[in-house]
Amino acid sequence: MNQQYDETSPVAIGLPVYNGERYLEDTLRSVLNQTFDNFDLFIADNASTDRTEEICRDYAGRDSRIQYIRNSVNLGASKNYTVCFEPARSRYFRWQNADDPIEPSLIERCFEVLEADPEVVLAYGKTHIIDENGGFMEAYDDNLDLSSESASIRFKDCIQHLGLQNVIYGLIRRDALAHTALLGNFLAADINLVVELSLYGKFKEVPVHLFNRRMHPEASSWKRDDSERQKDFWDPAKRKLVMQTWRSIKEYYKAVWRAPISLEDKRVLSMFLLKRAYWNKDPMKNELMEVIKYGLIKRP
User: Fold this and answer.
1) pLDDT per residue as tens digits for the range 236-252
2) Would you tell me the crossing angle of helices 263-279 and 244-258 to the nearest 10 degrees?
3) 176: alpha, beta or left, given left = phi > 0 and alpha = psi -120 to 50?
4) Which of 115, 162, 166, 205 could form a disulfide with 127 if both were Cys (CB 3.0 to 4.6 A apart)?
């Protein structure tokens, strides 16, 4: 299927938000003041109850690049990320957190990389971790410059080196992204998505600071070990958030067999994932026992 692009705006940005009033204006200013200004911005508001709607409508009324979408109910993070991706028809796409301001040249520098090398599917810059007031905390090395010609090597390098999830906020080829499962409705689905993207091409780091990851108590990444907090973020209904390790492995298998890669790469990665399942046998066993004990497998 040939992708029909909107050539008038080569870049689209999707901004999913829920009750983001504290940092939203600061983030919007950082996006709208980019040195590369030929983009569309799709804001998906997940039924916020604070001033988020007011702020979004105000900015949309003043800048024609912004389209504001408001969900009638909170769909959860994964579905809302998809809501702001679906209307995008540009060659390149990026997601933008409502609390993570970006440097002025992020889009321009990443755009140049993708335009220069068709084998690169994702371009990203260096990350600074900032505190709730915007103060510098540390420089973070994402270590995901994946330059191998082999899809299986890129996949394994990505899954083994991926730490704090920042590169998903780089710039991505939309046609590749559209062939993935996007963000599934399970915990840490963003990790699965980035690893799946490595099957479609190389990742290239722009060696300058372009992205800021804000750490604050309201952020989803503030307490990664708080399972209830994470479930509330990904799916407030929490009906399907069981057997998460099983689900992640299953989705990796589906990604490998869906991707346009060689049969040899599929074989190599199937064996790799089988070993990964063995390495995770203890949490997988615990999840299965939990389901059996509490009878959590039920149809909605």
Assistant:
1) 655 555 667 888 899 99
2) 170
3) alpha
4) 166
- Residues 220 and 166: their CA atoms lie apart, in Å, by 13
- Residue pair 213/166 in contact by the 8 Å Cβ criterion: yes
Q: Is 210 helix (H, G, I), strand (E, B) or coil?
A: strand
- For 193-244, the pLDDT digits (tens) are 999 999 999 999 999 999 999 997 776 554 555 555 545 555 565 555 566 7
Instruction: Using the Cα atoms of residue 276, residue 278, residue 283 and residue 288 in order, give the sign of their dihedral.
Output: positive
Q: How many CA atoms does the CB half-sphere of 69 hold within 13 Å?
A: 21
CA distance 270 to 251: 12
Unique residue bearing structure tokens 């298998």:
253
Mapped onto helix, strand or coil, the DSSP state of residue 97 is coil
Nearest to 77 by CA among 219, 225, 284, 245: 219
> Do the beta carbons of residue 267 and residue 152 sit within 8 Å?
no
Q: How far is CA 281 from the centre of its chain?
A: 27
| Tokens 């040939």 sit on residue | 2
User: What are the residues facing 11 on neighbouring strands?
Assistant: 39, 92
